């Protein structure tokens, strides 16, 4: 691989003979990074960076400093050091601003700044800091738009690819497909080696629509493009997504084989965080296939890497699956510890809408424990505990449904999460012989929605939801470092009609509501409204 083979930012005017040694080190590092030799690349980048820390550094040197720091930030994230990634990205942005203050965009520093913003967005998303991540993506889009030539053209592909992944995460699939097709056209015109990324995103869209054959076709195209471009790690990601597609199509053996091959490629390429993500996927698949021993064996090392990296979304899911495994084995105390650890990660990252899903899993585990109780007193105590978790979770997941725009995503959430959650709560209420509460719950479930909402429900973004009660983050493909992003979350840039929350119900005017205290407790527990303040009579 030569310097010309590297996909990245070229700059405008040359930085001159003074910075020739820097350019050579930085470019060699980019080649090594592209080959997956992260440790060697990092060493060269530090050598290059050191050359810029001189008292008489000029604008060209500051531009070079920003480029080296941006590349180091991307490599740090790939190795799971998210603290370093954020610190280096901030330093890169400071260097950009300093270079621009002295020489404007003479050396192409504005494109470097956009690239760092896109890269930092990915890191912030891993940590669950979605508002900040969205701000970075929007900032990059404001800079590059669709691009015309040079660095802006390359970044336009990256930024529009980012927007595609965002829309996939929001399950706005028609818009996501349009964005993916735009990215594909831009990539084909600017650099065909980049077309693998939109192909992978088109695969994710096809997969969400249960078109597994089309998804696999797109993913094979992506693998071929990345392989031809010499990007082994991007090709490995395409293989990993083929594995996920095979699992969804019911071919567990092929899925596990492809996921294992991709995990090994990321390990060999010194990308432990990506390898850990795939190890989690393998563990989840093994658990769903009934191989709990293999699932537990794979999950432990994955959780350690995810925890060290602070990968909030994936760590939550891994800890939740670990809880499921322990509960299935009858180790309910340790299962509860694992669920609570996942709960804490969600709460700290602000993803409160996921807390209800975790509580539902906890409820199922406690209910199973109650079924095995040896005394009626213990059984009743455990049933009440399971019901406490189940009813609040069911009320919350039902309310989250109203935060979706009308359409497929809303119905999917209802069918796979909200309805099973409420069914479980009703079964527990019946087991506890609370007929009055069952009656009010049935009325609650039958209440219609208001047809207009002044603002979206404060329930937050919701990732793609496979069969209840487990969840894997939405799969979309991001570009490699210095031009990468993966975002989920609501954005005012993508408005949609949404329903308002239904009113509270007065089922019997001559009796205190049995459900209202539970509604208030649910709102307190999860921190968002689940019914409007309006009260209407049902009789």
Automatic annotation (TrEMBL):
Gene3D superfamilies membership: Tetratricopeptide repeat domain
Official protein name in the record: Tetratricopeptide repeat protein
InterPro entries in alphabetical order: TPR-like_helical_dom_sf, TPR_rpt
Species the sequence originates in: Glycomyces mayteni
């Amino acid at each position: 691989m030569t310097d010309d083979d590297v996909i990245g930012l070229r700059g405008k005017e040359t930085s001159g003979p003074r910075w020739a040694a820097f350019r050579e080190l930085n470019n060699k590092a980019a080649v090594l990074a592209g080959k997956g030799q992260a440790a060697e690349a990092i060493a060269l980048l530090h050598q290059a960076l050191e050359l810029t820390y001189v008292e008489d550094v000029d604008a060209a040197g500051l531009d070079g400093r920003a480029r080296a720091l941006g590349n180091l930030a991307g490599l740090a994230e790939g190795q799971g050091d998210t603290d370093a990634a954020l610190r280096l990205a901030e330093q890169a942005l400071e260097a950009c601003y300093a270079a621009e203050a002295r020489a404007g965009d003479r050396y192409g520093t504005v494109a470097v700044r956009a690239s760092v913003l896109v890269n930092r967005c990915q890191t912030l998303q891993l940590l669950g800091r979605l508002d900040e991540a969205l701000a970075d993506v929007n900032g990059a889009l404001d800079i590059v738009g669709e691009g015309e030539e040079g660095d802006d053209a390359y970044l336009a592909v990256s930024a529009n690819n980012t927007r595609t992944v965002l829309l996939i995460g929001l399950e706005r699939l028609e818009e996501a497909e349009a964005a993916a097709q735009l990215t594909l056209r831009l990539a084909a015109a600017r650099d065909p080696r980049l077309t693998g990324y939109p192909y992978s995103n088109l695969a994710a869209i096809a997969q969400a629509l249960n078109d597994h054959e089309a998804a696999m076709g797109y993913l094979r195209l992506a693998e071929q493009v990345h392989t031809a471009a010499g990007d082994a790690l991007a090709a490995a990601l395409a293989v990993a997504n083929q594995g996920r597609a095979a699992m969804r199509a019911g071919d567990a053996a092929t899925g596990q084989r492809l996921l294992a091959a991709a995990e090994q490629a990321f390990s060999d390429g010194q990308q432990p965080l990506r390898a850990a993500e795939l190890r989690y996927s393998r563990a989840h698949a093994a658990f769903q296939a009934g191989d709990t021993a293999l699932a537990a064996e794979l999950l432990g090392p994955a959780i350690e890497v995810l925890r060290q990296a602070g990968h909030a979304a994936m760590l939550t899911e891994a800890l939740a699956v670990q809880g499921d495994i322990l509960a299935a084995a009858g180790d309910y105390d340790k299962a509860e510890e694992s669920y609570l650890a996942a709960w804490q990660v969600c709460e700290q990252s602000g993803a409160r809408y996921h807390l209800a899903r975790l509580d539902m899993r906890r409820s199922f585990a406690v209910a199973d424990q109650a079924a095995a109780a040896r005394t009626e007193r213990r059984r009743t105590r455990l049933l009440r505990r399971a019901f406490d978790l189940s009813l609040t979770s069911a009320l919350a997941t039902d309310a989250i449904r109203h935060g979706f725009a009308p359409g497929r995503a809303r119905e999917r959430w209802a069918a796979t999460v909200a309805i099973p959650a409420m069914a479980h709560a009703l079964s527990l209420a019946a087991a506890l012989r609370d007929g009055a509460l069952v009656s009010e719950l049935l009325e609650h479930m039958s209440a219609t929605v208001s047809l207009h909402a002044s603002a979206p429900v404060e329930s937050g973004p919701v990732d793609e939801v496979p069969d209840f009660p487990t969840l894997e983050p939405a799969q979309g493909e991001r570009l490699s470092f210095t031009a990468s992003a993966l975002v989920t979350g609501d954005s005012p840039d993508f408005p949609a009609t949404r329903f308002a929350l239904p009113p509270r119900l007065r089922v019997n005017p001559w009796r205190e509501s049995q459900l209202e205290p539970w509604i208030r407790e649910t709102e307190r527990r999860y921190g968002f409204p689940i019914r409007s303040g309006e009260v209407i009579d049902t009789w």
